Each structure stands twice: as structure tokens, then as C-alpha cells.
TrEMBL record:
Keywords: Endoplasmic reticulum, Glycosyltransferase, Magnesium, Manganese, Metal-binding, Transferase. This is Dolichol-phosphate mannosyltransferase subunit 1. It is found in: Endoplasmic reticulum. Component of the dolichol-phosphate mannose (DPM) synthase complex. It comes from Homarus americanus. One of its GO terms (cellular component) is endoplasmic reticulum membrane. It catalyses: a di-trans,poly-cis-dolichyl phosphate + GDP-alpha-D-mannose = a di-trans,poly-cis-dolichyl beta-D-mannosyl phosphate + GDP.
Length: 238
């Protein structure tokens, strides 16, 4: 029973799904510091991300950096399922490896979880002093619009549904990932909707999201269409 553990017994595993993040991986691992087990799930990056991971493992040790590569791009949901199997922490942090999420917010996630004995703590760009930096107006409008639409249709009890910077109890993350059917951009939203459906407790921490420093952003027209389809599916099925 995880709520009976003392704080000293809590262990935090960070799941880092990567695809072409060779420039960002050393920086994010350095920023995370020594407090976490970091599980890198690389989906066959052609840019040599895995080789960089191996060098970092030599520096930090294989108890700190756990490499769990896969042969090709198989999606975020299965990356989490794959990563959870190897996580030894009782809490799991999910975040992007592209420096859009700063580890400096993690202590606040942990504090919020402890104060409310919560199952899920989600980073939000849309409440308190959260925000987005480096996006053009179009991207901001799409993101805000997508989130607003989801709020109206789904009433999720959380202000930021498509973010991927969160802290979960390990067993809660496992149950949620296994119950989700969505892929891509909608997956994170379904995780929150299912959490509410199963009666899990959700808290939020305002974060600043910074657009990726190196590499390409992955949002295009097909992702937007996929999002709307996924939203309507969740509306119809939850």
C-alpha cells in the first residue's frame, strides 16, 4: 500500500520516450540530477540517440540510466507500457526528452502529490502562472482551441489535457495505459479522462512549456484531424 510508505521509501522513475533526441538527451539527464531512475525508451532513432544513451550510462551508471530501446517507432502508449515494466520506483514521472519540460517543476509535483495523497499530478500550461514560450500565434490558438473543445465535451476536471508532463502512482499509470485505446496527440487526454472515470484523484501544477530547442515539432494537419476524431470518440464512449 503506497500511501503507508514514508517519503524516504518513495522512489521516482522517469520515463523518457525518445526519437531523434541525441542533442537533448545529455542535457535533460544532467538537469534531472541524481534523484531519479531514468528509463530511456528509444524507438530506433536514426540519429544515434541510443549511442548517446550508452555513453551517458557509462558516466552515470546503469542503475541510474536504464536503456530499454525498441526497434522502431511504436507509439507513446506502448512506450509507457514497455517502460513501466522496468521501473523500480513506486511513482513514475513522464515527460518529454526535448527540453520543453523543465525538471525544476518536479519537486512541486511531488509536494502536491504528498499534500493531497493524489494518484495523478498533471503539469498545466493553462492555469496559475503556467504558460507556453516559443510558439507562434497559430500553434497557441490550435492548442487553446483543442483544450477548450475538450473541456466543453468531456468536463475532465483538469485544465490541461494534452500535456505530457505528469506524475503517477506506478500502479495507476499501469491501469490507465492498459485501458487507453487512443494514439498520438489524443493519448494524453484519454489518460486524464480514464483517470476521472476510474475515480482516481488528480492534482495540477502550473508549468512553463518551452518549444523544443533542437529538432522538429511533430504537430501537423493530420495530427489535428486525429485529435478531433479522438475527442469525438472519447465523447461518445465515456
Amino acid at each position: 500500500l503506497s500511501f503507508l510508505r514514508t517519503m524516504a521509501d518513495d522512489k521516482y522513475s522517469v520515463l523518457l520516450p525518445t526519437y531523434n533526441e541525441k542533442d537533448n538527451l545529455p542535457i535533460i539527464i544532467w538537469l534531472l540530477g541524481i534523484n531519479f531512475e531514468i528509463i530511456v525508451i528509444d524507438d530506433g532513432s536514426p540519429d544515434g540517440t541510443l549511442e548517446v544513451g550508452k555513453k551517458l550510462q557509462e558516466i552515470y551508471g546503469d542503475n541510474r540510466i536504464v536503456l530499454r530501446p525498441r526497434a522502431k517507432k511504436l507509439g507513446l502508449g506502448t512506450a509507457y507500457i514497455h517502460g513501466i515494466k522496468h521501473a523500480s520506483g513506486n511513482f513514475v514521472i513522464i515527460m518529454d526528452a526535448d527540453l520543453s519540460h523543465h525538471p525544476k517543476f518536479i519537486p512541486e509535483f511531488i509536494k502536491t502529490q504528498k499534500e493531497g495523497n493524489l494518484d495523478v499530478v498533471s503539469g498545466t500550461r493553462y492555469s496559475g502562472d503556467g504558460g507556453v514560450y516559443g510558439w507562434d500565434l497559430k500553434r497557441k490558438v490550435i492548442s487553446r482551441g483543442a483544450n477548450y473543445l475538450a473541456q466543453i465535451l468531456l468536463r475532465p476536471g483538469a485544465s490541461d489535457l494534452t500535456g505530457s508532463f505528469r506524475l503517477y502512482r506506478k500502479e495507476v499509470l499501469q491501469k490507465l495505459v492498459e485501458s487507453c485505446v487512443s494514439k498520438g496527440y489524443v493519448f494524453q487526454m484519454e489518460m486524464i479522462i480514464r483517470a476521472r472515470q476510474f475515480g482516481y484523484t488528480i492534482g495540477e501544477v502550473p508549468i512553463s512549456f518551452v518549444d523544443r530547442v533542437y529538432g522538429e515539432s511533430k504537430l501537423g494537419g493530420s495530427e489535428i484531424i486525429g485529435y478531433v476524431k479522438g475527442l469525438l470518440y472519447l465523447f461518445a464512449s465515456t
